[in-house]
Amino acid sequence: MDTTLLIVIAGLIVVLVAVGLVSARRRADQDTVAAPPRPPAAPPRYGLGQAIRRALGTRLDEGTWDSIEDALIAADVGVAASSEIVAEVRAAHPDTVEEARQGISDALESELSGRDRSLNLDGAPAVVVVVGVNGTGKTTTIAKLAKRLLGEGKTVTLGAADTFRAAAAEQLQTWGGRVGAQVVRGQEGGDPASVAFDAIDSARAKGVDVVIIDTAGRLHGKKNLMSELEKIYRVSGGDDVAEVLLVLDATAGQNGLAQVAEFSHAVPISGIVLTKLDGTARGGIVVAVERSLGVPVKFVGVGEGMDDIEPFDPASFVHSLME
Ligand code: GDP
């Protein structure tokens, strides 16, 4: 074969390989551009709404009602409330699966209706004592509430009466600084009730509108903790305290009920802040708590950010529960 022909063939091969490489690269680029972004791995949701839809299936029979009751219990609504809700919906003889679903939704909403959920801010200053087990979100909730009240034009002082944990007072101080509330602290290991007293005293002297008192939440040494809380309540004005809010972690399920009972032996709980509702698809604990102890849920925590607190609204809560 002559050399010129060889050079031409070699040249052709080089050109073909180059063209192939370029178009493969272009295709790869197009693939990259065209490929939809990978969706984040969604957490498995076994919410009440799905469970009820699954239980209802396509027709209503005996088994359906049992499955619905199981779904309500699994969502923490509580055994007694679940069976009463099912009995009430059955008694209305729904004709269709959709009517039954609507009946359950209405029954849940009426369970939660008719309670005063407003935050009482009587007093000058109004004193709000916040109690709850450590880790439920007490400190975060106090900061969120302070931010909310400041946003409404009120002045706020925070009292760091959890003197058992140095970190708690630090955290409160940090949050207070961020949201713009004055923080009154005491000595580490000092008398929590005297910190509450000082915080209220300082607020009164400065004409501050609201004092929010953080308290310890250790459950070992329960007796000491409860008598400490009683003392804080007494020193903070006793019956004149505007609110005693219990912070409850929604993901704790039925354990939460035991916590409400425990704390209400020591102090008269006037409202509940249910935190971490963003972390659970259950949430039926609201019904169980309000039913068994008659204490209204006043706020819900829906995230870790300072704005992630909302006044509790039964209609939208039931709607999201039944989605
Ligand atoms: P405390 O020990 O009761 O004072 O609890 P903290 O306020 O320190 O909160 C404990 C943890 O729960 C922190 O990591 C908070 O960010 C988190 N937390 C508090 N409230 C909420 C909430 O509504 N949703 C979620 N997802 N996390 C929360």
Write down the CATH class of the largest domain. Alpha Beta
Reported by name, the CATH topology of the largest domain is: Rossmann fold
Largest sheet report: 8 strands, mixed
Ligands, ions, cofactors: guanosine-5'-diphosphate
Q: Any idea how many domains?
A: 2
Structure overview:
By secondary structure, this protein is an alpha/beta fold. The chain has 2 domains: 48-111, Four Helix Bundle (Hemerythrin (Met), subunit A); 126-321, Rossmann fold, CATH 3.40.50. It is 52% helix and 12% strand. It is built from 12 helices and 8 strands. It has helices at 3-34, 48-56, 62-74, 79-91, 97-111, 138-151, 166-179, 192-206, 222-235, 255-266, 285-293, 314-321; strands spanning 126-131, 156-160, 182-184, 210-214, 243-249, 271-275, 297-301, 309-311. An 8-stranded mixed beta sheet has the order 3-2-4-1-5-6-7-8, sandwiched between helices. The longest helix is centred in the N-terminal third of the chain and has 32 residues, at 3-34. It is flat. It starts with a helix and ends with a helix. Mean pLDDT is 85; it is low at 26-36 and 38-46. Bound molecules: guanosine-5'-diphosphate. Residues 132, 134-140, 217, 275-276, 278-279, 301-304, 308 line the site of guanosine-5'-diphosphate. Guanosine-5'-diphosphate binds next to helix 6.
